[in-house]
Amino acid sequence: MSFVEMRVYELKPGTANAYVGRYLEEGFAIQKSHLGEPVGYYVSEVGDLNQVIHMWRYQSFEERTEKRQALFSDPAWLEYVAKVGPMLLNQRNVILNDILS
Prior knowledge:
By secondary structure, this protein is of the alpha+beta class. The chain is about 40% helix and about 30% strand.
């Protein structure tokens, strides 16, 4: 059974456009090279604003651990994270079991 990790980042007010722009320019290619295609990458429009939500599918927790270790061993990713980190207020991660697979 696979699962999806949903990561919700709450951004400082006024930084969402800069965060998304930097992610598309610098972060996405690096992250995709380690994690594969995301299930989705979203920006909140209604309700709790200033949030970026992204979802990644894994076949096992071991696969997730290996892929995320490789990602955080990449100097380009660490450089990107240092740039966007100051824009974040909070982060929440949720593991969602895929009951249909």
